[in-house]
Design goal:
- The chain is of the alpha+beta class.
- The protein contains seven helices and 19 strands.
- The chain starts with a strand and ends in a 19-residue tail after the last strand.
Length: 311
């Protein structure tokens, strides 16, 4: 049987929020089967639990934000996508995330630090079947046209693979890989995807900071690009780091489906908002998906039965 997973022990991290600039402490704790991933605001007078599910998403501008019942005025947690991507990449189903502010710390701007934290705590196999969200027919969201076109699509696939293409029309980005494909069953999430950092353009920084955003951003936790080049002294971690970070984000955005997915995800110039719309469109069509388990691990997609260090 393919079983659910949680942590063996708790682990902690301290950092700053990318947009808020606030210091925040994070404690990742084991959770019982069928709990899902639940963020807990422990800085409030009474702790508030916010499950990381599609119905909780309340904002997708610049990041994925969840709140109680998806209510924008309720307690919230911002910028969950990198931690959620790490949970997806490691196959974690159940986790409590205690947090002392309203934004997950950015750490180094990728998912690598979260992968390290989770693996350091150890991964526990639980005696409950892992529930997969299997896509049964194509679902697509398209917006814009011409140079403004962007789209995202889910299609049936016995496994989980992602294809992404970017088009920023920027010399520094155009000089790198523009498209990437990744199959989770390869067991290479940590090596191939997790280290890809978030990125930003200097021309946007002043505008964002005037709106109270990116207050915690720096070259320690993001790739910074001016009109012509990457400004980070160490350069890029991957030749195609920009598009790989979009894959990383998409994995985190889609993990708020509440279950690991069996599907092919393909996208062109997508982002947090379009990924969220795609999940809503999927759930709106009851004939497009089903929940499945694998009592016989041999029937699961290749690689999904192994407790690989970075799966």
């Amino acid at each position: 049987m393919i079983c659910q997973r949680t942590l063996k022990a708790l682990t902690r991290a301290v950092g700053v929020g990318l947009h808020s600039g606030q210091k925040v402490e994070l404690t990742l704790r084991p959770a019982a089967p069928d709990t899902g991933i639940v963020f807990r605001r422990i800085d409030l007078p009474s702790p508030v639990d916010i499950p990381a599910v599609t119905a909780s998403v309340c904002d997708t501008r610049m990041a994925t934000t969840i709140s109680v019942g998806g209510n924008p005025g309720a307690p919230k947690v911002q910028t969950i996508e990198h931690l959620m991507s790490a949970c997806c990449g490691l196959g974690l189903d159940n986790l409590y995330v205690d947090i002392t502010a309203d934004e997950v710390p950015i750490l180094d701007g990728s998912a690598a630090s979260f992968v390290f934290l989770l693996q350091s705590a150890g991964i526990e196999i639980q005696s409950a079947p892992k529930r997969f969200l299997r896509v049964k027919k194509p679902v697509e969201i398209r917006e814009g046209e011409g140079r403004g076109l962007k789209w995202a699509r889910l299609e049936p696939y016995h496994g989980y693979r992602l294809h992404f293409e970017i088009d920023f029309a920027h010399p520094a980005v155009d000089a790198t890989g523009q498209r990437v494909s990744f199959d989770l069953g390869s067991g290479q999430y940590r090596r191939d995807i997790a280290r890809a950092r978030t990125f930003g353009f200097t021309k946007d920084v002043e505008m964002m900071r005037s709106r109270g955003l990116s207050l915690g951003g720096s070259m320690d936790n993001a790739i910074v690009v001016d009109d012509y080049r990457v400004l980070n002294a160490e350069g890029l971690r991957y030749d195609d780091e920009f598009v790989k970070h979009k894959i990383l984000d998409a994995m985190g955005d889609l993990y708020v489906a509440g279950h690991p997915m069996l599907a092919t995800y393909s996208a062109f110039r997508s982002g947090h908002a379009l990924n969220s719309k795609l999940l809503h469109a999927l759930y709106a069509d009851a004939t497009a998906w089903e929940i499945v388990t694998f009592d016989d691990a041999r029937l699961a997609p290749e690689g999904f039965a192994d407790l690989a260090p970075a799966w």
